[in-house]
């Protein structure tokens, strides 16, 4: 039962919170803090690694909290991959996997990155 609740909560947080808003660096940091100090501890009663129950939310949080330069490089890499202008040996998932983002497709990752509100 708790796995179903976690799965639905992950989907809700991803679609209704992350994909419905824009995040400043402070907002992204607050999301990371809230997950680590409220949501994950609730499920720590049932598993040693509660963050694995929230793959979309966890991966989105990684992307939203990237440093500006890293986010821009990743965005450019994903844009190139998605536009079809990639080299034959280029794996569009490689940059995401290096960051520990396993559950989002390149398209979804690009969408999450577009939710970053970067002040000038």
From TrEMBL:
GO terms for biological process: endoplasmic reticulum to Golgi vesicle-mediated transport; regulation of ER to Golgi vesicle-mediated transport; retrograde vesicle-mediated transport, Golgi to endoplasmic reticulum. It comes from the Eukaryota. InterPro entries: RINT1_Tip20. One of its GO terms (cellular component) is Dsl1/NZR complex. Pfam families: RINT1_TIP1. This is Alpha-E domain-containing protein. It comes from Echinostoma caproni.
